[in-house]
Design brief:
Radius of gyration: 26 Å
Distance between the termini: 76 Å
Strand content: 5-15%
Largest sheet: 9 strands, mixed
Order of helices and strands: HEEEHHHEHEHEHEHHEHEHEEEHHHHHE
Helix content: 25-40%
CATH superfamily of the domain at 116-328: Aldolase class I
CATH architecture of the domain at 116-328: Alpha-Beta Barrel
Shape: globular
Length: 508
């Protein structure tokens, strides 16, 4: 009896000395794959046998469940990888991530410009959020001169990145060519521009100049079958666009240009079932070419005539992505495993990030283009940024690390607070009908299950092909993510920027 009580006393002492269950743990049982433990802050995931799963469940629930004589290394392993951690230590790690975010936001080594040479558009898309498509203004020579002078003021910037946007930028060919020539004079190494276009005017003249314009990526939108696309992405005067766009993509893909094309399919309740078929068709049509086909999430304000009933909620969006993987094997951009989004930055939060309109007006976010209330200044002014209130709101007030709700969310390390534009509009301006959180908040278990399914398939295939054996579970637990890593300390994030909460991809 004395030996029993000595054992119980020793067991209780060990249990009390262990660090508590991490705030960011997810312990779950997959009927298909087994037992697992995931930590959103460290990015580590373990596979467990049933005994270690039950031990972990006891630690989670605060029960006295650990038997040191069976496996004295297990709690130390959990602490080492952040599954057992003091809350103050986790908050300190988040503080360090906030510092990294601030360092990225206030970095001045790169000047990042999104330039709208015109807000005019030759399309009249039913869901477009911009209200300036009929504005005929094209950036003038004077504005181009003022923009170059504005760029020259950024003496700290060692490099320049440019994205051409609109409106429809292909309506302003001379502006794009003229400015690019001047960019190359200022930055001889300038070689990485992007073009967001509906591609209706992306003809031979444009294609022949893409290399000289240093355009390495092009985003083009096709919204489903020909009939569906033409019903929602029509010319301003009426008329179909699908066939002309496809012909131009054919021409582009058969040219000497060696950049990358991203086909965006804006998905809502009306065309969600067409994405997989269109993706398959395009990938087969352009097999061997540098092309990706991705779904685009449509954010439709409640006040928009298209109606909020047409768009997918964030949870519906994640269901759409999960269904695509389950039925068609479509892996989301960035993979199924939730990447860290804690250092979540974009043009809106970057010190040297600007959106430039055709009159030289400046914004911080693509979503603000054409909205006079969100103009932060003008390239014509000696002090270009006048409305510092908007800049400050984006950089600091919309910082999710300053949001108690975010900081108390167990998904925060992978969500990163989601979209700062929507966050600001919701929390600062009281706009209704917006969801700023990253989709991963609603689908963490689905994402993990998809990752495990994909990983298990790879392990079995590798074993059958003799590449490697299926890992054993002799120890009763093993790391399944990352597969190979260099240990860099407890709770060290695997990646600081991920696919769920990074910079937005605008509608074209």
């Amino acid at each position: 009896m004395a030996i029993y009580f000595q054992y119980k006393t020793y067991n209780l002492l060990i249990f009390k000395q262990m660090k508590p269950w991490s705030f960011y743990n997810t312990l779950f049982h997959s009927e298909k794959s087994g037992f697992f433990l995931y930590n959103a802050l460290s990015g580590f995931m373990l596979e467990l046998d049933k005994e270690h799963y039950e031990t972990a469940a006891g630690l989670r629930d605060g029960r006295e469940c650990f038997e040191p004589q069976k496996d004295s290394e297990f709690p130390a392993f959990l602490e080492e990888h952040g599954f057992l951690a003091q809350r103050d230590d986790e908050l300190l790690q988040l503080m360090q991530l906030q510092y990294d975010r601030n360092a990225a936001c206030f970095n001045t080594s790169t000047l990042g410009l999104t330039i709208c040479p015109t807000l005019s558009c030759n399309f009249c898309c039913s869901y477009c959020f911009e209200h300036s498509q009929s504005d005929p203004e094209i950036m003038s020579e004077n504005t181009m001169d003022a923009l170059i002078s504005f760029i020259k003021k950024h003496k700290e910037a060692k490099s320049l990145t440019v994205n051409w946007y609109g409106g429809e930028p292909t309506l302003a060919f001379e502006v794009v060519t003229g400015l690019t020539a001047r960019f190359r004079e200022l930055y001889p190494d300038f070689d990485n521009a992007g073009l967001i276009t509906n591609a209706y005017l992306l003809d031979g003249k444009w294609i022949d100049e893409l290399a000289n314009l240093k355009i390495t990526t092009i985003q083009i939108t096709l919204d489903g079958s020909e009939a569906t696309h033409n019903s929602r992405r029509m010319l301003t005067g009426g008329g179909p666009t699908y066939r002309n766009i496809l012909d131009n993509i054919d021409m582009l893909m058969n040219s000497n240009w060696n950049g990358r094309v991203a086909i965006r399919v804006n998905v809502d309740k009306y065309n969600r079932d067409e994405f997989a078929g269109l993706r398959k068709e395009l990938l087969e049509r352009y097999a061997g070419k540098n092309l990706v086909v991705r779904p685009g999430y449509l954010t439709i304000p409640l006040s928009h005539p298209y109606g909020s009933h047409s768009g997918l909620s964030v949870s519906e969006w994640k269901d759409f992505l999960f269904d695509g993987y389950k039925t068609s094997g479509i892996v989301p951009h960035g993979g199924n495993f939730p990447q860290s989004g804690a250092v979540n930055t974009c043009t809106a939060t970057s010190r040297f990030g600007y959106v430039i309109g055709p009159r030289g007006e400046m914004y911080k976010c693509l979503e603000d283009v054409g909205n006079g209330k969100m103009v932060i200044g003008s390239v014509y002014d000696e002090e270009a940024v006048r409305n510092k209130d908007i800049v400050a709101r984006y950089a600091t007030v919309a910082d999710p690390f300053n949001d108690k709700t975010c900081m108390e969310c167990s998904c925060f390390p992978v969500c990163g607070g989601g979209c700062v534009n929507k966050r600001m509009r919701m929390k600062q301006f009281g706009e209704e009908g917006l969801e700023c959180c990253s989709p991963v908040r609603y689908s963490l278990l689905q994402d993990l299950e998809s990752y495990l399914d994909q990983r298990r398939t790879k392990e079995i295939c590798d074993a059958l092909l003799g590449k490697k054996e299926v890992p054993d579970m002799k120890q009763g637990y093993r790391l399944v993510h990352p597969e190979q890593h260099r240990h860099r300390g407890v709770g060290n994030p695997i990646a600081k920027q991920g696919s769920y909460a990074g910079a937005c991809v605008p509608i074209s």
